[in-house]
Amino acid sequence: MDTSLAFLGLVEARPGHGYELKQLYDEHFGGARPLAYGQVYAMLARFARDDLVEMVGVEDGSGPSRKQYRILPDGRKRVIEWLKTTDADASVSRTNLFAKVVIALLLDEDVTRILNAQRSALLNAMRQLTRAKQNAALLDVLAYDHALLRVEADIRWIDMAEARLTNLKETLA
């Protein structure tokens, strides 16, 4: 996720001050990608510097003054351009697990043990996600479904890797 563009989109959706915008971010994305207040104010300052947002007022209260922000046309343009980009990355991924399998094969370590441990961890993660999904808000259900499908894909990859172990060992010998 491009945190800064998602945050800029929130400024367009609900103009407000940093605290409100962080709450909105946390409501929609915070569980997956926490954002510190310092990051919020740094992004808002950068957006203002780049003429993507503008400060439209200051709200005084019992605490520090709160600067109100709204998006500018260039900011909206940037968000719309981002929304139109696709995320269909078809590049061959060399994950940490992939590297572990290759190194274990090269060192003649027990690859099956490594794959079984990873499968067990993924099945546990799947159970946790499924439980969390049961009472979640609809937007969170969508995020849990995405995570569950990614976990399922990793488990399928482990199954395929395990089925190919004999040939892989011969190839790397």
TrEMBL record:
Origin: domain of life:
Bacteria
Domain Transcription regulator PadR N-terminal: residue ranges:
8-78
Which InterPro entries did the record assign? Tscrpt_reg_PadR_N, WH-like_DNA-bd_sf, WH_DNA-bd_sf
Gene3D superfamilies with a match to the protein in the record: Winged helix-like DNA-binding domain superfamily/Winged helix DNA-binding domain
Instruction: Kindly name one Pfam family recorded for this protein.
Output: PadR
Protein known as: Transcriptional regulator, PadR family
- The organism named in the record is Mycetocola miduiensis
Lineage, broadest ranks = Bacteria, Bacillati, Actinomycetota, Actinomycetes, Micrococcales
